[in-house]
Design a protein that fits this description.
two-stranded antiparallel sheet; 2 strands; 65% helix
Amino acid sequence: MDFIHFNQKQLAVRWQVAEATFELLLDSVLSDIGIHFSDKTVIPAQKH
């Protein structure tokens, strides 16, 4: 049981890391095409 519990904890941590990494990647890709995520709202990028 301890082994299964440990695996669940590892999976949860890995999922959080993967989710955060995915959000950063998504944010960087979207900012490249002119969309920025700020506090979960979509704002068109300002063109200078």
